Fold this sequence. Notes:
The complex is a heterodimer of chains A (271) and B (342). Chain A is 70% helix and 0% strand. Chain A contains ten helices and no strands. In chain A, helix 3 runs antiparallel to helix 5, helix 3 runs parallel beside helix 6 and helix 3 packs antiparallel against helix 7. By secondary structure, chain A is mainly alpha-helical. Chain A starts with 11 loop residues before the first helix and ends in a 9-residue tail after the last helix. With 342 residues, chain B is an alpha/beta fold. Chain B is built from nine helices and twelve strands. Chain B has helices at 105-113, 135-138, 156-164, 173-179, 195-207, 225-240, 252-258, 305-316, 330-337, and strands at 67-76, 79-89, 94-98, 120-125, 141-144, 213-217, 244-248, 261-266, 269-274, 287-293, 296-302, 324-326. In chain B, strand 1 (67-76) and strand 2 (79-89) form a beta hairpin. At the A-B interface, helix 1 and helix 4 of A face helix 2 and helix 3 of B.
Amino acid sequence: MTAAPERTLPSVAAVCRTRAGVELKEFFRQRESVVFTLMFPVILLLVFGSVLDYDLGSGVSFTQYFMAGVIAAGILGASLQNMAISIATERSDGTLKGLAGTPMPKSAFFVGKVVQVLAVTVALVAILLAIGALFFDVDLPSGAGWLTFVWVAALGSAACTLLGIAVSSLARNGRSASATVTPIALVLQFISGVFFQFSEVPTWLQTVAALFPLRWMAQGLRSVFLPDALAAEEPAGHWELGRVALVLGIWCVVGLVLCVRTFRWQDRGQG
Amino acid sequence: MSESKDPLAPHGSHARGGPLRGGPGGRVTPVTARDGAHWAAVTSPTAVPAASAAPRPDTPVDPDAAISVRGLVRRYGSFTAVDGLDLDIHRGEIFALLGPNGAGKTTTVEICEGFRRRDAGEVRVLGTDPATGGRRWKAQLGIVLQSGAGDSQLTCRELLRAQASYYPGARDPDEVLDLVGLSEKAGVRGRALSGGQRRRLDVALGIVGKPTLLFLDEPTTGFDPEARRQFWSLIRSLRDLGTTMLLTTHYLDEAEALADRVGVIARGRLVEVAVPSALGGRGSAPAVVSWTEDGVRRTQATQAPTALVSELAGRFGGEVPDLAVARPTLEDVYLRMIGGPA
Lengths: 271, 342
């Protein structure tokens, strides 16, 4: 008989660390992803902040309003768009299949992705806040505002990460994922109150936007950056933080179910 | 754990209902030598009485074999890609699976690797059903996929270190880079490698976990001849270390150079298993003698080429014009088995 030497498998934690390192290098060494995901929101903030510097009333500048929107859009890019495109690419070029053939615990792969999203999101938010505060006199959140900021960003990021992983399974490859997800994200940004005030969006488009997480993430973040006087401009007349949590929470559950049911380690038609 | 190979006695042809069932043995039939197909005219099944090397469908799977497959079936829609395939691969051997595109090679291999499901049949790989194999089972495998690994921003060394960290008792990444001849590219990113270098990186990723069983699906596609020779010596040194290998390839010289046994798969079935020199009754197949007479190229297949040549020598009183004596190459018998050019 061949008693294979009982070698202990590496711990899941150790493999998670490896995967986190791999994912961070894959992201930050790729110029396209850094420019697209990290620099694009920064450029938007610089351009919009310089051009659209008008007063919304109550002494609030548009840049103060835009800060919430551009952070929400940045989180969408770092999570949903990033995951959908990168995982679709890795699936079509055989990276995922290669990993599935190793004893790597499957969970470690997702932990690595989450670490990547977290790192990119934290870096992006820090850069946006710094630019806002330094160049555009944006008032940063304080006290309880930070708490709201953190849970809205974390919950929105989680929902969008799960959705991005789920969406990656619909695309044939990275390019088709990009071609599908990028325009949808752009439309959502326009109708969710990122580039201009949500109250200026036609009602029926507001209803469409309300189906997706971006609108709720943006509104939750507005509650942090804007004075309560501007809550009256929201569709419900107040910040609706409870509903923000509810909708983002539902999207987390929906995203998780979709991931579990649809995730594939190889191209469709195989397996 | 010393693995003794099964004695590879000269297994002969065992044309089990396959296209090998040839004409009457020993008959000398003049044919025109146009391509490899003339071998189909004369085979001599009676001359090779050795037992079949392929497992019989009615024996159970062998849990001690590296790979044991019985009655494997896989359908894609109405197309049956694998149609009742039986296969045993012993521990320690290099087994080459040959077959045309679409014959079911990759499907079979990927079922054994755990990538694809099966519709029927029994499969044991290192004693485990691939459909339920866990981490511990995968830790004993090395897999070089036909598609290869994807683009990466990581360097070769980083990729190998990451891969090694998934396995217990992995090889040293730098030694593996040296083994596949990529030491100079250790700091180069995966996506910046040439096609042949990428393939070598794929092989390096496949062996860094120190596998007991290594799957190599068309590993040398895109290699130049020199790289192929280097790869062959790498495979031989892995065999000397006791690694079992299942190799699929389109290069018959590769199968002949590396494999202890060769299996030919056609239309989803294994049509023959033999040592390369005996495949298709090659060892005892008639020779083809050709010469020029009265300005016409003449060809004759015979079991007694020496007698024919001396008869010709007598007839011509010395040198026979353009004399050539040939035995079927592996390619000849292979093409005939898969129903190649008729």
